[in-house]
Amino acid sequence: MRYEYRIGLRYLRARRRERFVSLIALISLGGVALGTFALTVALSVMSGFQQDLRQRLLAFTPQVTIERAEGGAFDAAELTRKIEAMPQVAAAAPFISAQVMAVSDAGSARPGYVSGAMLRGVIARDNPVLTDLQRTLDAGSLEGLEKRHTIEVSDGGQKRKVELPGAIVGRGLAGDLGLRLGDPVVLISPVSLGGATGPPRLRRFVVAGFFHSGMFEFDSSLVFVGLKDGRTLLADDPLLQSGLELRLKNLFDAPQLARRITALAGPEFRVSNWTEANAPLFSALQLEKFTYFLVLLLIVLVAAFNIIATLVMVVMERRKEIAILRTMGARAASVAMIFLFDGMALGLAGTAIGTGSGFITSWAIGRYHLIQLPADLFMVSAVPVRLYPSNFLLVALAAIALCICAAIYPALRARSLSPVEVIRYE
Question: Which of 326, 344, 357, 408 is close enough to 419 for a disulfide, judged by CB 3.0 to 4.6 Å?
Answer without folding.
Answer: 326
